[in-house]
């Protein structure tokens, strides 16, 4: 592998340590930052993720309330829970964990998350505000893409960035954040013709498709910077990205690892957003 490894661990540690200091300051002043995580699934990878968030909140001094409604929860029940948490002065951040029960639409539900408590940018209102250049919490993963590039000194202004994936949690918000940094952004998706031709014309490739090995050496220009957002479980219990690191690592200039790249920064930003929300709500 000749590409530089753009780790997210050091940046995540720095964000967590700033967040812990701010959480301690707020707690001492009588506001204990609190994150509520609403769960309505028995999905094992979701349970693993919720446990990892709970551990991370504990490390930085944020309280975490997991509200488990069970996999039979209905849309109205989930909405009522989100309404109640939105109105609860003790709660500063709200995450609605997916998947949701069949027939329950995550975006419809997320409309019930008060936007200034929407620390993972799940409410469509947050995406709209982000697109309009108004203040809003971006989905933590999308923000992690930009923060990891900035942390490693990758200049985005005027550069061509190809984002592979157009979901509302990663691809679209990442494209808006990159545009805000003056990048020239192309958003690719499952219907894009000749993906390799588009991505290999880019200075930076952001892979967020959830497809193991989608991005190979044929998809990147020599020396390009590649951000691998994919977190795809393997049969042996491991985790791999969307990028074929073996071949891309020989051609790209830099590559984020999986695990240890975007993932840890995402978690750290969720914590940071919760403390920012607590601070803003306290002043309000
Ligand atoms: P999604 O399934 O909602 O969206 C996938 C997107 O990729 C779609 O827009 C689709 O059009 C596009 N796509 C699929 N196949 C393609 C192909 N062959 N060519 C081009 N585009 C293609 O997924 P998502 O929720 O946006 O997540 C994407 C990946 O990011 C997943 O692996 C997910 O696990 C990972 N993820 C990681 C984190 C993290 O913290 N690191 C957080 C969220 C998501």
Automatic annotation (TrEMBL):
Occurrences of domain Tetrahydrofolate dehydrogenase/cyclohydrolase catalytic (ranges): 6-120
Residues annotated to bind NADP(+): 165-167, 231
Taxonomy, superkingdom: Bacteria
Pathway: One-carbon metabolism; tetrahydrofolate interconversion
Protein keywords: Amino-acid biosynthesis, Histidine biosynthesis, Hydrolase, Methionine biosynthesis, Multifunctional enzyme, NADP, One-carbon metabolism, Oxidoreductase, Purine biosynthesis
Recorded catalytic activity of this chain's protein: (6R)-5,10-methenyltetrahydrofolate + H2O = (6R)-10-formyltetrahydrofolate + H(+); (6R)-5,10-methylene-5,6,7,8-tetrahydrofolate + NADP(+) = (6R)-5,10-methenyltetrahydrofolate + NADPH
Its EC number(s): 1.5.1.5, 3.5.4.9
Domain Tetrahydrofolate dehydrogenase/cyclohydrolase NAD(P)-binding: 139-279
Function noted in UniProt: Catalyzes the oxidation of 5,10-methylenetetrahydrofolate to 5,10-methenyltetrahydrofolate and then the hydrolysis of 5,10-methenyltetrahydrofolate to 10-formyltetrahydrofolate.
Quaternary structure, from the entry: Homodimer.
Similarity comment: family membership: Belongs to the tetrahydrofolate dehydrogenase/cyclohydrolase family.
Name this polypeptide is given: Bifunctional protein FolD
Source organism (scientific name): Microtetraspora malaysiensis
């Amino acid at each position: 592998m000749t590409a530089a490894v753009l780790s997210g661990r050091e940046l995540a540690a720095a964000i967590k340590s700033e967040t812990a200091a701010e959480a301690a300051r707020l707690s001492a002043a009588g506001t204990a930052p609190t994150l509520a995580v609403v769960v309505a699934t028995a999905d094992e990878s979701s349970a693993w993720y919720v446990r990892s968030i709970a551990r991370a909140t504990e490390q930085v001094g944020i309280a975490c309330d997991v509200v488990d409604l069970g996999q039979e929860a209905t849309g109205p029940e989930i909405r009522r829970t989100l309404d109640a948490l939105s109105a609860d002065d003790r709660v500063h951040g709200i995450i609605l964990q997916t998947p949701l029960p069949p027939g329950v639409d995550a975006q419809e539900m997320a409309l019930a998350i008060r936007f200034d408590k929407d620390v993972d940018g799940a409410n469509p209102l947050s995406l709209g505000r982000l697109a309009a250049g108004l203040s809003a919490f971006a989905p933590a993963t999308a923000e992690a893409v930009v923060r990891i590039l900035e942390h490693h000194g990758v200049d985005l202004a005027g550069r061509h960035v190809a984002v592979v994936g157009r979901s509302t949690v990663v691809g679209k918000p990442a494209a808006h954040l990159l545009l805000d940094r003056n990048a020239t952004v192309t958003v690719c998706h499952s219907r894009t013709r000749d993906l390799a031709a588009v991505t290999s014309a880019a200075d930076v490739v952001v892979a967020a498709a959830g497809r193991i090995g989608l991005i190979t050496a044929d998809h990147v220009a020599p020396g390009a910077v590649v951000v691998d957002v994919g977190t795809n479980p393997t049969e042996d219990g491991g985790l791999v990205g969307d990028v074929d690191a073996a071949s891309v690592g020989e051609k790209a200039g830099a590559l984020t690892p999986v695990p240890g790249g975007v993932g840890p920064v995402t978690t750290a930003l969720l914590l940071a957003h919760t403390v920012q929300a607590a601070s803003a709500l306290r002043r309000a």
